[in-house]
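User: quick one
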Amino acid sequence: MKQYKPLELAQKPTPLHRLNRMSELLDIDLWIKRDDLTGDILTCGNKIRKLEYIMADAVDKKADTVIVAGGIQSNLAKTTAALAVRLGISPVMVLAGEKPYIAKGNFFLASLLGVETRFVEISHPSELATAMKDVSKELENEGARPYIVGFGASNGLGTMGYVEAYKELTVQMRKEGVEFDHQFLAAGSGGTLAGIMAGSIFENSNSLITGISPWLSSSEVKESVWKCIREMEGFLDIKPGSIKLKKDVEVDDSYIGSGYGIPTRECINAIRKLAREEAILIDHTYTGKAMAALLDYVEKGRVKPGEKVLFWHTGGAPALFTLEAEKEF
Ligand SMILES: Cc1ncc(COP(=O)(O)O)c(C=O)c1O
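Assistant: Done. Structure below.
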């Protein structure tokens, strides 16, 4: 198996711990994997684990510019920009929509870094890939050596970051003497779920892993998960199609509400509950909707009393600073 050497950029291992008060409240055994603590406010969350592999590739290819895309509050765009600054590479962010009148949350943080930003009008997130290619061509014509960070950093390379994370989790589970019946996480562009699914196969886990989509349909996320897994097989030099899951990827798209980044009432309740019971912050775009799903699964008996459940906290709290306390909470 070919070895890829990631850059060491994240704080690892991230803590795995039990949520005692939430466990009691829900009558389940609830644990959390704190991937919101992979870095400081500029780099925390799931994206840095993928970027350890992707930025290593950019450095290897002697890129002097990295191009990354997302929404205005993109955790990926801000994290990539911050890592690029630290590595001495120029970041360019391609963001969907219009320049906001006031810079808040992640966009405020990226603005502090002085990142070059292009705004594009799109009707589907997939159009961001074309926009990044256009910017790349333009920069190449100006003599730069640009590197495009794939959409959501969800590709074969990025996926390896979450295979590693699953290995890390397995070591911690053995130490704690816990095996999970269920695992829940937010699944956007699918790379995190892909790495966790592949990692769970490599580690022989029987956990039922469910990705909760904050914007794409369940079939779109599943397609992306499989694409990431197949692409990763290429990087690992293993036979195409050799990673087989025990059952198909589970993605639930019924907690999106009115759309991406628009909090549902259940999501606000979930954010409030975790803050008030455990003093842990989750966000209204990704992790709040994933936690809302977990709470609903418990309420509907899809997670049974006493079952052991893991919640992957993939970060995103800086976006909370775009909300208004009196209005939303
Ligand atoms: C906080 C947070 N959680 C989860 C995700 C989903 O990760 P992925 O795109 O790998 O599915 C993202 C992606 O942007 C994110 O920012």
